[in-house]
Amino acid sequence: MLKINDSCKNTGFKTPLPLTLLYYHPLTLAMPVPMTQQQVRLVKQSWKLLREISPIVLGDVFYGRLFIKYPFLRPLFKGPMDEQYRKFFDMLSIIVARIDLPDNLGPEIAALGRSHRGYGVQPSHYEDVKAALLWTLEVGLSNDWNETVGQAWEACYDGLAHLMLAQE
User: Fold this and answer.
1) Which residues fall within 8 angstroms of residue 27, CB to CB, at 6 or more apart?
2) Which of 114, 113, 63 is nearest to 84 (CA)?
3) pTM here?
């Protein structure tokens, strides 16, 4: 059932989520799915290529970029980063595996949003993380990256970040 979700407003994203693609799942959560089937396919195909990279290497590239561009985020991360790198890789794997199954993904992403809020993550940080993630994906995919792949990952991230922010 389609539903206009007012919580899309004030999320800090430059472009609003397409209202025609907001699905309401009454038994779980309002899960925005601003992705076409082609975008879902592109995210899955490109992640399959990235899974060949070590989680430690991919995590190091992502967090290295994040902390160089946004050093104020570094204090949010306590403990050994190798563990964080693995969590990052594992969560991306879960998201990609279930991106076309919002009933299975929604509750997990909502819980992730609540935990991030507990760590001190602010709504404005989501755009910083998005920039670092898209850069990491572009570098990792190299010749397999193009504007269409970038738009697919951006749509994926924006939908997930929306759900995480809705837990505030």
Assistant:
1) 103
2) 63
3) 0.77
